[in-house]
């Protein structure tokens, strides 16, 4: 008498295949999330650098206070932590943290 259904071996093979696929895909998905956070932080850094340059043209000096910058230009930075460094008439520095991904922007570029 034969009953319909799957044998234990067939179920174990399917579970093993699913486990192998999960082991391969999960690290790739986590890396994609970090790359997305980095891309967002870089977009914020570019916007911040542009806002600083506009401020410098208007005021002949840089600022370390993001409140003095054009807030419409800083919209890509929403949800990120911006830590001000130094600001002089010749340079500035800011550190942008986006969920653990840190980018530094200065008058010389973005690191």
Structure description:
This protein is of the alpha+beta class and 111 residues long. It has one domain. The protein is 47% helix and 20% strand. It contains one helix and four strands, in the order αββββ. Strands 1-2-3-4 form a four-stranded antiparallel β-sheet, covered by helices on one side. Strand 1 and strand 2 (92-98) form a beta hairpin. The longest helix has 52 residues, at 8-59. The N and C termini lie far apart (71 Å). The mean pLDDT is 92.
Which key terms come to mind for this protein?
111 residues; alpha+beta; 1 helix; 47% helix
Mean pLDDT: 92
Shape: rod-shaped
Q: What's the tally of helices?
A: 1
Instruction: Label the structural class.
Output: alpha+beta
- The tally of beta strands, per DSSP, is 4
Helix proportion range: 40-55%
- Biggest sheet strand order reads 1-2-3-4
Oligomeric state of this protein: single chain
Instruction: Give the H and E element order.
Output: HEEEE
Into which percentage range does the β-strand content fall? 15-25%
Poorly predicted runs are none
The largest sheet, given as strand count, sense and whether it forms a barrel, is: 4 strands, antiparallel
Termini Cα gap = 71 Å
Q: How large is the radius of gyration?
A: 25 Å
Whole-number count of domains: 1
């Amino acid at each position: 008498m034969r009953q319909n259904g799957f044998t234990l071996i067939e179920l174990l093979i399917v579970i093993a295949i699913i486990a192998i696929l999960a082991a391969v895909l999960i690290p790739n998905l986590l890396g994609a999330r970090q790359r997305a956070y980095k891309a967002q932080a870089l977009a914020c850094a570019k916007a911040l650098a542009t806002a600083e340059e506009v401020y410098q043209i208007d005021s002949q000096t840089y600022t370390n206070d993001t409140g003095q910058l054009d807030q419409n230009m800083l919209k890509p930075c929403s949800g990120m932590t911006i830590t001000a460094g130094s600001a002089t008439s010749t340079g500035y520095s800011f550190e942008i943290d986006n969920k653990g991904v840190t980018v530094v922007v200065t008058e010389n570029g973005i690191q």
